[in-house]
Amino acid sequence: LTPRWYAALDTLLALLDAQAKPTFDPQTGAFQHNEYTFRRRTDAGTETLSLSGNGNPLNNGTGLIRSAFRPSDDATILGFFIPANAMMAVELKRASIMLAKAGKVKLAADLKTRGALIEEGVWEHGVVSHKKHGSVFAFEVDGYGSSILMDDANLPSLLALPLLGFVSKDDKIYQNTRRMILEKNGNPYYLSGKAFKGIGGPHIGLQNAWPMSLLVQAMTSDDDEEIEDALSAVKRVSHLGLIHESIHVERGRDYTRSWFAWANSVFAQTILDVAERKPHILFGPGGKPYIVN
Description:
Blueprint: H1 3-19, H2 50-53, E1 80-81, H3 82-101, H4 105-125, E2 127-130, E3 134-137, E4 140-141, E5 147-148, H5 161-164, H6 172-181, E6 190-192, E7 197-199, E8 208-209, H7 211-219, H8 224-236, E9 246-248, E10 255-256, H9 261-277, H10 279-283
Helix pairs in contact: 3-4, 7-8, 7-9
């Protein structure tokens, strides 16, 4: 842990404090400008923030951190983006453990408290009731009771919550969420066609699903058939031997990005994961786990 690392951590903590501020002062009710705004001329609503670059109002006392944009580069609708908050909660607690071992007891305690507060906010405000699936994680919330129910292929995502270390694969609310986001009636961006199916997102449009979502689906499943189907689907549309960004669900040879480093990295991660957990899927009956230390 170098001085530069500690300086970066200080910057991060200051940023978290700034982005934890609500839209209105909790004492006076007066509007308070966020330190980060983004506004530009565009014909795409996902490319800018509403309300003169401030984004939609966020409530006080949630413990959550604001995200102006999603991992897909699309603007959030409701600024408390749950997957990123879940990831931040986990990483703050991991950093706390590391700092404690380095003898930074006070700083370690601060990060542990921050992580716990965000985690509490996710469970209190990020879990909502779905009429079919019961309690599920929302994609975005505002702390006032509004929520967005969907998932996007980009990481962090709701589908990837176990990979982030926030919940186990068999967590009941995660499983409810998983069922919701992997069906068309539960997730508006679960796209299915003659050539391909999977989770997409507004970044590319309403006819392109992302192979990356199927790779995450495989890593968060213990079902052999589901894993095999996901890997086979990705293989069928990887015409250049590499993983594309997105695939047109009706025309499998219509894709974006001939190679996409992010998705290729997730593919490598997936193969190593399956080789360790389910070696018989890759190596055949009797295959031994392949573990990279």
